[in-house]
Amino acid sequence: MKLISIKNNFGIPKYKQIISSIEKAIDEEKLVKGGRLPSINKVCAEFSLSRDTVLQAYEDLKKRGVIYAIPGKGYYVKSTEIKIKQRIFLLFEELNIFKEDLYNSFLENIGKNVQVDIFFHHFNLQVFQKLINDNNGDYTKYVIMPTNLQGADLYIKSLPANEVYILDQTNSDLKLYPAVYQNHKNDINDALLKGKHKLLNYKKMILIFPGYREPLGMKEGFEKFCNDFAFENEIITEFTNREIKIGDVYIIPNDRDLVSVIERAKLQNLKLGKDLGVISYNETPLKKVVENGITTISTDFKAMGKIMAEMILNGKKKQIENKCSLIIRNSL
Questions:
Q1: Helix H segments across the chain?
Q2: Are 329 and 295 spatial neighbours (Cβ–Cβ below 8 Å)?
Q3: What sequence ranges are listed for the domain HTH gntR-type (predicted)?
């Protein structure tokens, strides 16, 4: 039974004709799940093709999840779902309410006939490495959040360069890859500039910066603003049992620390927005109502997901800085 048909001088690349032939054979049930494809050597000999041409076709089908390879034996049908044209490997550091907004926006805008598989590295370089290694070559696109993991670029560079996109945080080691990212240094500096008229009501600015998950740019941008405008400031790694002084304003990247500051303020009978100021990071619906509103510095995560999806669909290779804003509420 002949499964592959190739026409010369047809105007369609021969590797694409091989792909179409395999898809047609699956659609007509000439090839079923688990069925073996003709070997690369056999297709090369029958149609006088180079090995690279046939391998390109088979690898494309493999990345889409249609076939799989058993080393030393050949290629077999993995799925009869041939409508899937792209399989995207999406690697997040973790899932929280704002990253969920990003993920849902990406899914809404990536279009039909695309399969998106999401994974999480939880800020662990060994997990990051394993997920990259285990899935290398199995997807048509790789969208990766490297966060601030030292050495992550080495594993990213093992992936097919033209298929990699960087999301949320990038750095100089990843400058050749297309990206939609936050510029944390500029974002916090610009946000504090916007809120400067409010900040002048306070005596001291305090950044809670554990330094484990938080981008270094946050710290750099905070220091720049305080130095430029001679604000008394302090950077602390944790808030535990700290006494809040009247006139303090806290910049808080982590929501656990936000809860601790609010609880401590209540314990000391201090009023947010009057006795102390609070600026949180990353907008959530809850921050609109907690303590009559928490001021936030936040990028637009829905926009980030949409821009990344459009970049992939349109085949664009750009580095796009996602917009960030200061939302002033009662806590400042």
A1: 14-27, 40-47, 51-63, 97-109, 125-135, 152-156, 184-194, 196-199, 216-228, 255-267, 301-314
A2: yes
A3: 12-80
Q: Among 79, 39, 30, 83, which residue's Cα sits nearest to residue 57? A: 39
8 Å CB contact between 16 and 24: no
Secondary structure element (H or E) that encloses residue 272, with its range = none
- Alpha carbons 204 and 206: distance in angstroms, whole number: 7
Rounded to two decimals, the pTM is: 0.82
Render pLDDT for 109-151 as a digit per residue (tens, 0 to 9): 998 889 999 999 999 999 999 999 999 988 999 999 999 899 9
Helix axes 216-228, 184-194, angle to 10 degrees: 40
Whole-Å CA distances, 29 to 6, 40, 59, 84, 266: 19, 21, 21, 17, 69
What mean pLDDT is predicted for residues 98-106?
Answer: 94
pLDDT per position as a tens digit, 37-80 = 999 999 999 999 999 999 999 998 998 888 999 998 999 999 88
Q: Which residue has the tokens 């997040």?
A: 92
2 band by pLDDT with thresholds 50, 70 and 90: confident
Domain 86-182+301-322 has CATH 3.90.980.10: no
Which CATH number is 14-77's, of 1.10.8.80, 3.20.20.450, 1.10.10.10, 3.40.640.10?
1.10.10.10
In the chain, the amino acid numbered 25 is A
DSSP code, position 72: T
pLDDT of residue 10 exceeding 80, the answer is no
Band of pLDDT at residue 91, cut at 50, 70 and 90: very high
- pLDDT digit string (tens) for 168-207? 999 989 999 999 999 999 999 999 999 999 999 999 999 9
The CATH number corresponding to 184-299 among 3.30.43.10, 3.20.20.70, 3.50.50.60, 3.40.50.2300 equals: 3.40.50.2300
The per-residue pLDDT for 8 is: 83
- 279 beta partners: 251, 295
